[in-house]
Amino acid sequence: MQSHNHIEKARRSLLSDHSIIEVTDLGAGSKHASGSKRQVSQIAKHSLSSSHYSKMYYRALTHYHARHVLELGTSLGVNTMYLASDPEANVTTIEGSPEIARLASSLFEEHKLTNIRVECGNLDEILSGIVDRVPRIDFAFLDANHRLAPTLAYFKVIISKTHAGSIVVLDDIHSSAEMEAAWTSIKQDPAVTGTADLYRCGFVFFEPSLNSQHFVLQN
């Protein structure tokens, strides 16, 4: 059984870090803070995936032997560390805010995680080029720009490199009317053969044998 104690120790450290950094918001913005100056502890409190969900993503990734992993929205890097816990997985993570990307990169270096590549920039501008460079996408986690049009656009780019065994996970699918609409649209995409709605997040599958099965699960 993989131990993630070191990751949770990193989470606790971030939650107690009251230093202030400059945050660049390229998406829908934070519901919990205004202005560009924010404490690291507040970012950690409101932006990090819980250990429960991060461990679930890790289990899914390892169960399906995902080797090419893409994350949209690095935040401070805790969820990224879970995704990279499988040493055979190559994780590309994209963050729009340079200062947050810098902190996450420092965390990965501290823990000697050499299977993570951090890309910093506006997803609207850099996602297509990044996806073009990877041979395929086995597992993708979308937690960036929680608005309808960008979410659908990013999903379309990502599924250009998915296959029957791929999984795409969308975070916060019920957090706003726009994300509800995005989730509804994605379920109806012709490439999608099945979904699982866990309320906090949604799993999207492309395996033809699922034959358009859509589940709402209590997690």
What does this structure look like?
The chain has 219 residues and is of the alpha/beta class. It has eight helices and ten strands. It has an eight-stranded mixed sheet with strand order 5-4-3-6-7-9-8-10, sandwiched between helices. Strand 3 (68-72), helix 4 and strand 4 (90-95) form a beta-alpha-beta unit. Helix 6 runs parallel beside helix 7 and helix 7 (148-158) runs parallel beside helix 8. It is globular and about 50 Å long.
Order of helices and strands: HEEHHEHEHEHEHEHEEE
Strand order of the largest sheet: 5-4-3-6-7-9-8-10
Number of helices in the DSSP assignment: 8
* Content-based structural category: alpha/beta
pLDDT under 50 segments (min length 5)?
Answer: none
The N- and C-terminal alpha carbons lie at a distance of 21 Å
Give the overall form: globular
Tell me, rounded to a whole number, the average pLDDT: 93
Strand content: 15-25%
How many strands, which pairing sense, and closed or not: the largest β-sheet?
8 strands, mixed
* Percent of residues in helices: 25-40%
Kindly state the number of beta strands: 10
Oligomer: single chain
Global Rg: 16 Å
